[in-house]
């Protein structure tokens, strides 16, 4: 009988199920805005997915360029989504006061001060990786690049 190598546990299906479960339990029907805590958690999730796709992209691209192109495109789209979540966080009502920041407040370097803004720290750390892996054109283009068939 041939020896089998144990396969690492795949936790991605569990993460997906947990998100679906969270949505079903915590997002009631009706017009409620997403809280800053929810946006922060979603941002953290997307940044984690970005890291997972980055690892797959780095390993796959040299061996299968066509598949690597698709993974690069997906990684870029995830970063764009995380970037929008970061912006939504800063545009959402502030806790306590309910004040909605103006556009000029959001463009400030630290619109609400440190150290509470873990979302900004996480975003900047990921942005550093993104700048090493993608060009500005990749990040701002509606088309994420050449995809081989």
Overall radius of gyration: 19 Å
- Total strand segments: 0
Mean pLDDT across all residues, rounded? Answer: 82
The N- and C-terminal alpha carbons lie at a distance of 39 Å
Account of the 3D structure:
The chain is mainly alpha-helical and 149 residues long. 62% of the residues lie in helices and 0% in strands. It contains six helices and no strands. It has helices at residues 12-26, 36-60, 65-91, 103-107, 118-133, 136-140. The radius of gyration is 19 Å and the shape is globular.
Feature tags:
globular, 149 residues, mainly alpha, single chain
Quick recap:
This protein is an all-alpha fold and 149 residues long.
Q: What does the secondary structure layout of this molecule look like, with pairings?
A:
Layout: H1 12-26, H2 36-60, H3 65-91, H4 103-107, H5 118-133, H6 136-140
Helix pairs in contact: 2-3, 2-5, 3-5
């Amino acid at each position: 009988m041939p020896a089998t190598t144990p396969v690492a546990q795949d936790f991605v299906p569990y993460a997906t199920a947990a998100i679906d479960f969270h949505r079903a339990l915590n997002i009631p029907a009706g017009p409620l805005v997403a809280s800053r805590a929810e946006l922060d958690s979603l941002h953290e999730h997307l940044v984690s997915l970005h890291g997972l796709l980055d690892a797959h992209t780095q390993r796959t691209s040299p061996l299968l360029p066509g598949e690597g192109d698709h993974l690069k495109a997906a990684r870029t789209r995830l970063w764009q989504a995380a970037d929008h979540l970061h912006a939504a966080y800063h545009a959402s009502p502030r806790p306590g006061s309910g004040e909605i920041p103006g556009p000029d407040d959001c463009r400030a370097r630290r619109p609400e001060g440190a150290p509470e803004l873990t979302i900004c720290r996480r975003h900047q750390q990921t942005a550093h990786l993104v700048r090493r892996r993608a060009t500005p054109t990749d990040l701002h283009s509606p088309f994420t690049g050449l995809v081989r068939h």
